[in-house]
Amino acid sequence: MAEKIIETENLTYSYDGNMAVDHISFSVEKGEILGFLGPNGAGKTTTVKMLTGQFAPQEGRARVLGFDVAQEPKKIHEKIGVCFEEKNLYPRLSVKENLEFFANLFGIEVDIDSLLKRVDLSKWINDRVETLSKGLQQRVMFARSLINDPDVLFLDEPTSGLDPISADAIRNIILSEKKKGKTVFLTTHNMMEADKLSDRVAFINEGKIVALDTPENLKLKLGKKALKVKMRTEKGFEEETLPLRDPETPKKAKELLEKRNIATIHTQEATLEEVFMKLTGRKLEQ
After folding, report:
1. pLDDT category of residue 242 using cuts at 50, 70 and 90
2. Which H or E run includes 171?
3. DSSP secondary structure code for residue 59 in this structure
4. Read out DSSP for 94-128?
5. From the CB of residue 261, how many other CB atoms can be counted at a distance below 10 Å?
6. How many of the other CB atoms lie within 10 Å of CB of 224?
7. Which of 7-21, 72-86, 231-245 has the lowest mean pLDDT?
8. Which pLDDT score is estimated for 259?
């Protein structure tokens, strides 16, 4: 049986009577990346703050690495790494000085050069943080979360607002940490990112978990595959989408093929965005 690194039971938190996290229960296994997906205000960040000991659950309980988050937060802090969307670095210090400062807070010695190689930051080791791009600052934040060689990484929207190249760099670092056996709890509203990185995904909406499974299973059970047909016309190109589960699709596809004006034809996979909309009736941006 796989070791459970994170376990929650009826985890609950509200702000002024407004339920942010509503009696949720789930677990995360060792070496797994769990994508925790939902729109802004769905309860993602509040969940992370409870799991990392920043908020005490108002109801229910949670354990991380076997420690109760409310009773033993210090023991948890020693073994986890946290990377939030908001930056809390010292802008006038260099990259190296920032990491040395946080290593001192942990009371540990860290090979800063080796750490920066892990996140591809060696080139900027002596640059002040305030001179770096947002993507590079996010990598510094990620490096900071690795200072204590944590067993679990809590990543809250780690690529939000980044350009595509910087976002890909962060995703590759996440995958490399998984290969080292790290467990990752990833919150995001980026469905493509979650699909690429996650072993399983949990959809949270209005504080409740509405689905939890592998991306493949969710798309298979709740999504719709389609046949995408691109046709040449006098005005250029037109596309037609034919649902694969529609009994009329074979007949319609045959009719289109007989017209001999097909430019391309391919199947289109269901997306996690489509699954989320089917479950909740809303888009992630809403």
Report:
1. low
2. helix 164-179
3. E
4. BHHHHHHHHHHHHT----HHHHHHHTT-GGGTTSB
5. 14
6. 17
7. 231-245
8. 61
Residue 101 amino acid letter:
F
Q: Tell whether the model's pLDDT for residue 86 goes beyond 90.
A: no
Once rounded to an integer, what is the mean pLDDT over residues 243-270? 60
- Angle 195-199-204 (CA atoms, 0-180°, nearest 5)? 70
Q: Which of 157, 178, 123 is nearest to 47 (CA)?
A: 157
| CA 15 – CA 2 distance, rounded (Å) | 35
Question: Residues 109-141, buried b or exposed e (16+ Cβ, 10 A)?
Answer: ebebeebbebbebeebeeeebeebeebbbbbbb
Question: The pTM is what?
Answer: 0.82
Q: Which residues contact 231 (CB under 8 A, 6 or more apart)?
A: 237, 238, 239, 240, 256, 259, 261, 262, 263
- pLDDT tens, residue by residue, 94-103: 999 999 999 9
Size of the chain in residues: 286
CA 123 to chain centre: 27
Question: Does residue 6 contact residue 80 with C-beta atoms inside 8 Å?
Answer: no
pLDDT for residue 256: 60
Amino acid at 35: G
